[in-house]
């Protein structure tokens, strides 16, 4: 598998994750709200994160992009700093399906970056970009915890549909949360992107 391509939106651009993103990935796994809302329970060392950052973009069956601000000056990006990550993983070439996940760093949430990042990745997943075919997917799925209404509302507004729930699959402090399984199929994506 080749590395993910560069993808450009209006507010943000996506580039493959690289070794220099280790510090920002480390921030992401230290962020209590982010780990709670993504249901991340595993813990990592800095060394593991550094190893991950330097190898993940060349691992098969997945595309891992850093979300970066799109602003340019004199034709060059003002900043190449990662402000979040978005991932297509569990790619199945026979079924033409994959899983989507994303996380923005705390200061960058609620500003529209997530919506645009998902739209660019779906375009690549279903239609390809710049005349290149991309993985030609038929289905993109994800799961979102019931304690995460912002993410769920965002996915619904982009055309993802709820398929079912894994009830009380996640422990949230003294209580439990469901995982809501959602997906979007290629014809649903095309209908959504025409509107
Ligand atoms: C979930 C996440 C990726 C969304 O990205 P984002 O850039 O913050 O989202 P956007 O600003 O593009 O859009 C958020 C949408 O949710 C809406 N929203 C915000 N807070 C909300 C809430 N509490 N309940 C319902 N909707 C809410 C916004 O109005 C916006 O909708 P709009 O575009 O129609 O106005 C980001 O907030 C994040 O990284 N959160 C922490 C990690 C996480 O939850 N990851 C997803 C795991 S499934």
Automatic annotation (TrEMBL):
Stretches assigned to the N-acetyltransferase domain: 12-187
The membrane spanning regions, by residue number, are none
Q: From what organism does this protein derive?
A: Promicromonospora iranensis
Q: What is this protein called?
A: RimJ/RimL family protein N-acetyltransferase
> CDD domains from the entry?
NAT_SF
Ranked from the top, the taxonomy reads: Bacteria, Bacillati, Actinomycetota, Actinomycetes, Micrococcales
Cited PROSITE patterns: GNAT (PS51186)
Top-level taxon = Bacteria
